[in-house]
Design goal:
This protein has 22 helices and 19 strands. α4 packs across α8. It is elongated. By secondary structure, it is of the alpha+beta class. 38% of the residues lie in helices and 12% in strands. Strands 8-7-5-9-10 form a five-stranded mixed β-sheet.
């Protein structure tokens, strides 16, 4: 018998000449298609091959008896033709979280093949088991083991040769799954010179506060195992025992410097060492994974705020001016800026004011989200910067996490691209790039702060230079020219304003970041703010005031030149009104202009509205009459026989004496006279 096309075959001569079947009967099988002729006969030295599996049952048994070992060959042929690579085993043996060890590729491949062969064997066993039960025969494990051994060279498996060991491995595999195929040598630390406990001790010595070198770590470790140095846990006070760090012979386990370096420089150990030795911020910026983001599609969807020190110093204080910027994330434009000598609340408020002036000037809506820091912004967490009050979304960045704020990156981009090009002394004295490294030539005099190159500037010089830099930054090409070809940052800002932005709520804006004065509503018509009289928009506004309280809080946002155009009044937490600047007119008729006439007309309209409101809400008048007295001096009760009937209030005839309601008191007085 032989294999042909992964099928176990017997030749025509073995069947006919061997006396298993007659030629006539064989021809009958072939004509009726009862057997599978894998290869037709004919030609020089060629003989027909018939698949053994296709033979009728009794003839198949005759073939097995006629050719000893044929049963194993049959099994091997079936296993080979039904063998499939187990994809579940491929996933398992390449996943360290499932195997628990890092398997070399050749070992993983070996275990995948073993699992696939066992799957095929178990499939055959399940099919043959029912047949053997019906026939009253036992399963022939020796034949199975012999067949699997015959396929070792072809499939490259490493399953046991022994029948009992093979049978045991099949049972274990059915019970435990893929894991039983992994050799116990993997993950076994008994043969390691540096076991887990020794490795942890080396790492613990390496994370001393003085950050010892690798040679120092080796020296301290060897001193410890020889008893020359005590090592203890500062949290528990436990002193480590050197006798626990010995080899098989009980001798101190000495380690070479190369071994120490090998373990200290492993990536996983390097990360753990840096976590202990670095500060939180340094570890976060250099070792900790970070998120990956992309910019929004629309302008003003998100605005990021951040402060910075301008790179050059002031002449008077030798300090750097503080700047605060607001960047639109989509376009990278600076949409707000402010300057101060100190990093304080005024700096932040001025930046917000500058941003909202720009938005108001261009008729843009309120940004959908702002990204701010905790240091200066936390005081507004429950008011102005509470989500839904002014901005729909507000994000407070984690403290000391500069990589989270988009404005931090933009500060660097502005400094490298614009400021470094326009000014001297922009960079760092320790910078690796020579183009960004600054050097100062010092004059050694009695002051010890004089330099050959100009190092100090006036306030006006620095602020004017920075404003020009901001303008140039905004009007330079957007970095993403593939998406925005030929467009500047400002072009991108203007062309992609988010269409879903809410309009600016100026009254709320003025209350939180505007100027504030306490004032009083005078003569039911105006308030005095910044030495100017501002009229109420309508006389009905006084209906919203609290009882016996004419005092209000006036808020306004001044323009860049200090002028005021809008004033809003509040009483406590309630918004009352937006005041109007009606103006004044010249009292001399001969000098009045058309503008004076317009102001005079506007004021007269205000007064006329007030008079109409008073007339519409005029209070009706009543007269009060005392009840008549009885003869004993007591008041008569209503319904008493002696009671004097009061005149009908609707009858104002003279016969009734007087009327409770009088339309013309002047005429009444003349009549009485």
């Amino acid at each position: 018998m032989e294999y042909y096309g992964n099928k176990l075959c017997v030749s025509y001569r073995e069947l006919v000449d061997g006396g298993i079947v007659s030629a006539c009967n064989y021809n009958n099988w072939v004509n009726r298609g009862k057997v599978d002729v894998v290869r037709k006969g004919g030609g020089k030295g060629s003989c027909a091959l018939i698949a053994v599996d296709s033979l009728p049952g009794s003839y198949k048994d005759d073939v097995r008896r006629k050719y000893p070992g044929g049963g194993a060959v049959l099994v091997a042929g079936w296993v080979n033709s039904n063998y499939e690579l187990d994809q579940g085993a491929v996933v398992f043996f390449h996943d360290r979280s499932k195997t628990g060890v890092d398997l070399p590729e050749d070992k993983a491949r070996e275990y995948i093949i073993n699992a696939s062969v066992l799957n095929t064997c178990i499939k055959l066993y399940d099919r043959a088991k029912d047949y053997r039960k019906l026939m009253g025969e036992k399963y022939d494990w020796s034949m199975m083991a012999e067949a699997i051994e015959a396929l070792r060279a072809e499939l490259h498996h490493t399953l046991p040769k022994s029948t009992l060991r093979f049978r045991k491995k099949v049972a274990q595999y059915k019970k435990e799954g893929y894991g039983c195929l992994i050799s116990g040598k993997f993950g076994n630390q008994s043969a390691r010179k540096v076991d887990y406990k020794t490795e942890r001790l080396i790492l613990a010595i390496a994370v001393q506060p003085n950050k010892p070198y690798n040679t120092s770590v080796q020296e301290m470790y060897n001193m410890f195992v020889t008893g020359e140095l005590d090592v203890y846990d500062p949290d528990t006070g436990e002193v480590f025992n050197p006798d626990e760090f010995t080899d098989r012979n009980g001798e101190p386990k000495e380690l070479r410097e190369a071994t120490i370096c090998n373990y200290l420089n492993r990536p996983k150990n390097r990360a753990l060492i840096e976590h202990r030795l670095m500060s939180f911020t340094t570890f976060m910026h250099e070792q900790m994974p970070h998120v990956h983001r992309h910019a929004p599609e629309f302008s003003l969807s998100k605005v990021s705020f951040d402060d910075r020190d301008l790179p050059r110093k002031l002449k008077d204080t030798k300090a750097r001016p503080k700047a605060y910027y607001a960047y639109d994330v989509a376009s990278q434009c600076v949409v707000g800026m402010a300057y101060n000598r100190n990093k304080n609340v005024d700096l932040v408020v001025d930046c917000f004011r500058d941003m909202f002036r720009l938005l108001d000037r261009n008729g843009w809506g309120c940004p959908a989200q702002v990204e701010v820091e905790n240091h200066l912004m936390s005081q507004w967490k429950d008011s102005f910067l509470k989500a839904g009050v002014m901005f729909p979304f507000v994000r407070f960045c984690a403290p000391q996490n500069s990589q989270e704020k988009y404005a931090e990156q933009m500060n660097g981009a502005k400094k490298r691209s614009i400021e470094h090009k326009n000014h001297l002394g922009i960079g760092r004295f320790y910078a690796k790039d020579r183009h960004y490294r600054t050097e100062a030539r010092k004059i050694f005099d009695e002051k010890n702060d004089t330099y050959v190159d100009k190092q100090y500037y006036t306030w006006d010089e620095l602020i004017a230079d920075d404003r020009r830099d901001v303008w140039e930054f905004n009007h330079s090409l957007h970095p993403n020219q593939k998406k925005y070809p030929g467009m500047t940052r400002w072009d991108v800002l203007v062309a992609n304003i988010n269409p879903t932005l809410e309009p600016l709520e100026k009254s709320v804006l003025a209350r939180y970041i505007g100027e504030h004065v306490e004032t009083t509503i005078r003569r039911n018509s105006y308030c005095r703010v910044q030495y100017k009289d501002w009229w109420l928009s309508d006389v009905k506004v006084i209906e919203q005031l609290e009882p016996n309280n004419w005092k209000v809080d006036a808020y306004y946002l001044p323009h860049e030149d200090g002028t005021i155009s809008d004033v809003y009044i509040w009483q406590g937490v309630r918004y009352i009104d937006k005041l109007q600047d009606v103006g004044t007119f010249n009292t001399a008729d001969c000098e009045q202009t058309e503008a004076d006439e317009a102001v005079k007309l506007a004021q007269q309209k205000k007064i006329a509205k007030f008079n109409k409101w008073v007339k519409d809400n005029e209070i009706g008048t009543v007269r009060i009459a005392d009840k008549p007295l009885r003869s004993d001096g007591a008041h008569n009760a209503t319904g008493n026989d002696d009671a004097v009937a009061l005149p009908d209030v609707h009858d104002d005839s003279p016969e009734n004496g007087y009327s409770l309601v009088c339309d013309d008191w002047g005429q009444k007085a003349l009549n009485d006279y």
